[in-house]
Amino acid sequence: MLWIIQNSKDTPAGTTVEWCEKHKVKYQILLLPQDLNLLPNKLNPNTDGVVFCGGGMNVDEVNAHPWLIDEKKLIAECIKNEVPILGLCLGGQLIAESLGARVSKHSQWEVGWHKIKLDFKNSTTKEITVFQWHGYSFDTPIGAQLFATNECCTHQGFTFKDHVIGMQFHPEATIEWVTDCANSEPQEYPTGQFVQSKEQILSQMTNQQPLQEWYFNLLNDFFKKQLSLFEALGGYEYVEKLVHRFYHLMDTLPEAVDIRKQHQPNLEEAIHKLTFFLTGWLGGPQLYFEKYGHPRLRARHLPFKIGKRERDQWLLCMFKALEDCEVPQHPANDMKKALTHLADHMINQEE
């Protein structure tokens, strides 16, 4: 179960829900303070993680919003028990405060689409335009790693160990929510150097899709234990892309010449069958079984000489394909272990 803590009707969970539904991840949204009685004060074994959303209040406004006290207790409980937690804007500020960092009124508002520089684990994305709407900000907690920054706000995102992420921006922003924000009443609209106008915000909506893709990759990586490898990769289209890249490498790499010789000149059938097999093997639909029956991998490959050299060449192409297709770190590591075990099983020749 993934808990989503929503602090305000005006700041919804956004594309976090879309990600959950896409990957069939069970989730429950708690809208505070209405659902305060449902807020768990002790985490049970079925708690896979918690997403803390944004909101119009600030971390120090506990008198006006007393449920923040309970929310902070839950955050502390998650950190203590190493439950994966993700904080968005206010949620990131609450997590930062729980880790002992300062959260205070920022020198100026940051509103609209703004670029941030990224250094997030093994991601190749080094800069992205994100949606911002904040007047407070956090410092990076001691022991945490800063992974996002920009000119307006130095501390845009941090990770703590392997189970905590806090972000100042809104990667979960939907087109609808951004439109609502842009149409805020004039008396409620912030001003300042880094505040975009309604027209500027609405003219840059094309930034939402790449932001969503980046966010979904982050969720795939962070909440990986909830996903099959098939889902973590991105489904059938991604498996198909991976297999095409794998056979392209086999067809072109000099180091793969021996394993290539064991295939037909035309690789179309091999691409089709491996895509079907990997789809089921990774936890997706059993396409190969439905069309061809049980894979019987070792038996089907007995006519071919497969020794350690052929195994290593096959793994070379597959590992390189994983890198070229930018598979997120955790799914890639899990796949490499499983593929190595599979390749070892296929050896039928002694050196």
What's this model, at a glance?
The protein has helices at 15-22, 67-80, 90-98, 175-182, 198-202, 208-222, 229-233, 236-252, 257-261, 268-281, 287-292, 297-300, 308-324, 329-346, and strands spanning 2-6, 27-31, 49-52, 85-88, 103-118, 127-138, 145-149, 157-160, 164-167, 194-195. The protein has 351 residues and is an alpha/beta fold.
Q: The CATH topology of the largest domain, please?
A: Rossmann fold
Tell me the number of strands.
10
Give the count of structural domains. Answer: 2
Largest sheet: 10 strands, mixed
Mean pLDDT: 92
Helix content: 40-55%
- In CATH terms, what is the architecture of the largest domain? 3-Layer(aba) Sandwich
Would you tell me the structural class of the helices and strands? alpha/beta
Assigned CATH superfamily of the largest domain: Class I glutamine amidotransferase (GATase) domain
Characteristic terms for this protein:
17% strand, Rossmann fold, alpha/beta, 10 strands, 351 residues, 14 helices, Globin-like
Structure description:
It is a single chain. The chain has 351 residues and is an alpha/beta fold. It folds into two domains: 2-227, Class I glutamine amidotransferase (GATase) domain (Rossmann fold, 3-Layer(aba) Sandwich); 230-346, Orthogonal Bundle (Globin-like). The chain has 14 helices and ten strands. Strands 1, 2, 3, 4, 5, 6, 7, 8, 9 and 10 form a ten-stranded mixed sheet that branches. The model has no long low-confidence stretch (mean pLDDT 92).
